[in-house]
Design a protein that fits this description.
Family: Belongs to the amino acid-polyamine-organocation (APC) superfamily. Polyamine:cation symporter (PHS) (TC 2.A.3.12) family.
Helix content: 55-70%
Subcellular location: Cell membrane
Radius of gyration: 22 Å
InterPro entries: AA/rel_permease1, RMV1-like
Strand content: under 5%
Distance between the termini: 31 Å
Protein name: Polyamine transporter
Main location: membrane
Order of helices and strands: HHHHHHHHHHHHHHHHHH
Length: about 475
Amino acid sequence: MGNEETPPSAPSTTTTSTSPKKLTLIPLIFLIYFEVAGGPYGEEPSVKAAGPLFALLGFLIYPFIWSIPEALITAELTTAFPGNGGFVIWAQRAFGPFWGSLMGTWKFLSGVINIASFPVLCIDYLQKLFPVFQSGWPHNVALIASTLSLSFLNYIGLTVVGYIAVFLAVVSLFPFILMSLIAIPKIRPHRWVSLGQKGVKKDWNLFFNTLFWNLNFWDNVSTLAGEVDKPQRTFPLALLVAVIFTCVSYLIPLFAVIGSVVVDQSEWENGFHAQAAEIIAGKWLKIWIEVGAVLSGIGLYEAQLSSSAFQVQGMAEIGILPKFCGVRSKWFNTPWLGILVSTLITIGVSYMDFTVIISSANFLYSLGMLLEFASFLWLRWKSPMVKRPYRVPLSLPSLVIMCLVPSGFLIFIMVIATKVVFLVSGLMTVGGIGFFFFMKLCKSKNWVEFSSGAEEDIRENGVERDVL
């Protein structure tokens, strides 16, 4: 390759080469879909917050501001550095192990706390059909049992999870397709351009947070790069298809329901699509969409738990975590310790009133994304000769502009956060910094064994950074 730098020879490429099965294109597309969306569930508050027109414009325009740039960056950096550390590898390669470790802290905490909401969501929908699960020990037992069952499913193999994601997506999306088709004769296009009910104040905080919640986490799939068949070719195509598929899955039901159903704007809460289905087609479709919400929650849980578990395994491979954190199951080749740790945190958080914690997780995610954009630009400028099987076809000044727009949005989301969110996020960040120096002490004292992957990688590629 002449004077091109080669991508890092991360241990993940060696470790996972013996894996009997790897993710192919179709399962990867649907895993990305469940990392990000999982269906139109959760888009309804955008109408309540800003009215029909702004809701439609939001889901039309926001992907160009946020989703596409994030997906492009993920495609380039994942194909250049195809290890299970994903965004941790990118920050470590750009700015050194300290920033790699802090990136890992921010992303892992935000991801695992986010995962905790999905078993709760499943139980919330189930209790509508089975009231016994509303409270008390039946609710607690159901929550633990569902979390452990879903985690065990993750344990038996990533390829299994990938094909389950395909099935769950088809079953959970089909009622929305039916609802949209049945709604066609009832659609009145003038309703699409409504600015909302008179006298209803716009809630821009809710509006932008709804868009952010429904269209982020594109980079989470990067932590599975070492498990993908021919990642240099598979990832860019999978991300392209997933972006289109996700945007369409949000927009079609939104156009259909807004155009065919007239209700008070305040009724556009989470879960309103199920009520709209009953208005449009009958109770049978409402029940199907509610069942689909449970299936979507399962898919979201599986995809995001996989990313968190393989992030732990990838961080062990590059020497940020102790080597034992990367242990895999002998039967299924899955990172069982990463799955276990993520599951235990998920169970703990799911019993808390975690509105503030989830807001703090979003704050940490935003910090991680700012670091990710900086890592992308720095690597393009500092290491232009690194082989990039997929390369965003823009010059460096254009890439700066591409990153500045979503970065401005991230800063806006962070500025409007409450003081409690600032405090909790600050404590979590301080904890992450302390964890880095504790790991550094463990390495210097030889208390536990670390992989030498990070040091070897940096020496081989000439990145002048201090290592652990």
